[in-house]
Amino acid sequence: MAQGWLDEASARVSAPKVPPPVPRGRLLLLYRFQRRSAKAIRIGFFVMLGFMILFSLTIVATVLTGGSDLGSQVFSLVLFGILTLSLRFWAVSANSTGQK
Description:
Order of helices and strands: HHHH
Number of helices: 4
Oligomer: single chain
Number of strands: 0
């Protein structure tokens, strides 16, 4: 019996398990939220995504025109990216605390 358990455990460990991909709707918070606070945080998330798109376009324009302040724009984009991810995780956390 013990050998059977060991064989089963060995088969489970050696079999590669690929996690299923995360749907884009889930990644972009496009599903229905239950809590009002999570909905408000999600609005902030979308505003920050808009700022990231805007900064990305200004970086492309700076590169195409040969501008000199590229470093500060990239720093701003990274900062907005960190804030956007923080808002995303905060919205998911605020929504999941209400679902018990």
